[in-house]
From TrEMBL:
<comment type="similarity">
    <text>Belongs to the NRAMP (TC 2.A.55) family.</text>
</comment>
<keyword id="KW-0472">Membrane</keyword>
<dbReference type="GO" id="GO:0015086">
    <property type="term" value="F:cadmium ion transmembrane transporter activity"/>
</dbReference>
<keyword id="KW-1133">Transmembrane helix</keyword>
<dbReference type="InterPro" id="IPR001046">
    <property type="entry name" value="NRAMP_fam"/>
</dbReference>
<dbReference type="Pfam" id="PF01566">
    <property type="entry name" value="Nramp"/>
</dbReference>
<keyword id="KW-0812">Transmembrane</keyword>
<dbReference type="GO" id="GO:0005384">
    <property type="term" value="F:manganese ion transmembrane transporter activity"/>
</dbReference>
<protein>
    <submittedName>
        <fullName>Putative NRAMP family protein</fullName>
    </submittedName>
</protein>
<dbReference type="GO" id="GO:0034755">
    <property type="term" value="P:iron ion transmembrane transport"/>
</dbReference>
<dbReference type="GO" id="GO:0005886">
    <property type="term" value="C:plasma membrane"/>
</dbReference>
Amino acid sequence: MTITGSGQPQFITRTGTQNASNAPLIENSDAEQIVVPDNSSWKNFFRYLGPGFLVSIAYIDPGNFETDLQAGAQYKYGLLWVILVSSCAALVIQTMAANLGVITGKHLAEHCRAEYPKVANIILWIIAEIAIVACDIPEVIGTAFALNMLFHIKIWIGVLLTGLSTLVLLALQQYGIRKLEFLIAFLVFTIAACFFAELGYAKPDAKEVIDGLFMPQLKGSGSTGLAISLLGAMVMPHNLFLHSALVLSRKVPQSVRGINEACRFYMIESAIALTVAFLINVSVISVSGSVCNSSNLNAEDQKSCQNLDLNQASFLLKNVLGKWSSKLFAVALLASGQSSTITGTYAGQYVMQGFLDLRLKPWIRNMLTRSLAIVPSLIVAAIGGPNAAGELIIIASMILSFELPFALVPLLKFTSSKTKMGTHVNSIMLSAVTWMIGSLIMAINIYYIVSGFIKLLVHSHLNLVAKVFLGMLGFSGIAIYLAGIAYLVFRKNKKMSHLLSLTALENQQMGNEQGNNGSLYNLPREDIVSMQLPQRTTPLDLD
């Protein structure tokens, strides 16, 4: 550790023998480490570039495309405000997640393990794993739709074939993950450019689009369900774990200036990435809303709009791509699904390492998640066909929204704690805004669950005894859901100092107090770097 004249650590690095907690999660000696010099320069921005864009891939995955298409087809521009609110909330929340990692040297899952008792940790881990599986379901179905459009393979067979996508991904890694990510991003942004170009043909009414963005409205329970799906597809719980961990792959100067610069550049990067994702989602909804609500649609297109899903959406791009619309949309959909698979694999690794201190090879981790996602997708696709598979994507996005509080509340609590964040603690204004966002999300979820459950009971053909029994069972589940959130909200945090408040002696004492977990305070985190897919660079350490 290098100490400045003020007694604060300039860089904190590992020394001595690795302990089990900080051992590499993937046996790979070629992990890339990006060193940020301790000087104030805009050139440093490019060293921080990466985590925000990798996280933003989840905002333009097949789940987003599906919910956007249905929102536009059914409610025209009426749900655009959900995209705007979700994007603004995502920027604030993702910035907080990045700040948590930079300032404390630990990612969100590790903080949860240190903060909560064992039972609560296991429950939070299970919820996080369910969220990752729910996020993988749209990737499975989106890939199956893409294979159907490209090769006319039945949807359920395509679902089975998605299990092989892991092997394809691993085969492509030999060319370098950065090249692979660039190719995927290029394909995804190609289809985004097509939707932007289609806006010129669709000519959505600008006043209606502005009203949709800035005049919140929910017309019935159907729109509420779609709004929840849009919210779940935009602000994903596993992204909070992912972003707080990805920032630990940089060697950040542990000085006040270095920390401030890292937080600022990560916020700028997240803002750029999420703005691009926001524009893509708005364009998809606008095209879908304009085309499907047009008065001069032919009978075939009207039928497609009534049950619009990823398998039928290519007709929206006929004006731009002509007869190639189906093939090119399928290729971009396939690329989108595979890029999201990368982020899902990373998030799964970080969640397991953080909550359980358990490490798996990435292909094993990916296959486990994919297998759990294939089972419900296969059953629904085999029994209900493409329409039911599309509905499953909406349900999966709703699950993500329901689970969001169990990642969001700990993040808000940790970043609002001065003992954890020091001078970088959330301001009173920011805390108020973020808690309002979290409360709004929870209120919408609870309203939808309660109203939907009551409607199900009222309109069911069960006898009175069965209704009473199901009512007690259902409302007990809702009470447990609320009790879990209340526990996270009202439980007091343990006292734990942030990195910049430590002198060399205090850091050593904390390491002794924390035992094997003491090294979790060290930066850079080589275990985080080596969890990522292989790079061809020799690691560097600072003396």
